[in-house]
What does this fold into?
Amino acid sequence: MEPKGLVLINTGDGKGKTTAALGTAFRAWGDGQRVLILQFIKGAWKYGELEAVKALGERIRIMPMGDGFVFHNKDRGDAALFEEKKKKAEQAWTVVEEEVSGGKWDLIVLDEINYAVHFGLVDVSQVVRLVKERPDGLNLILTGRCAAPELIELADTVTEMKLVKHAFQKGIRARKGIEF
Ligand code: ATP
Ligand code: MG
It folds into this structure.
């Protein structure tokens, strides 16, 4: 029998949550596994990641979760916009459920899902259900700051990236190949 898949969480304030998930995705791909990366929150794709995934072919895919999850700090105070985003996020959630339950993947990365929950775009109970009801062999990685305690409780491996320092603090802007 296939062993039960694992649930990993990369959270915390320090850099490395998404890139560690991509490292694991790369490792799984090398092992012959089928990998899906779902990106929440950010609209724009990181160029480096897209190019790398394209070069690897069909067995690894990167998928944006639509503009319901494109949310900026400046939008926080806009209640009408938030409701509109939330509705779109709900529609996009059906895609997440289909991909998770469909049996097409061995590893799914839910990038920035923790942040989507934190913002209130996705209900933590929906994510808990998704995790609990996943097919047996499916591994999941949930990334993003502020992971919900309910999800930390459910996960098998939780890593908190600790901010010691970041180049941004001395005014160095995001750099190609390192940040995008
Ligand atoms: P990465 O994608 O580099 O692994 P991350 O997933 O841990 O970063 P996010 O919270 O998703 O971090 O933030 C995304 C972007 O913000 C990245 O370009 C990252 O370099 C940058 N970043 C991460 N942590 C910090 C920080 N403490 N201060 C400033 N910028 C940061
Ligand atoms: Mg990230």
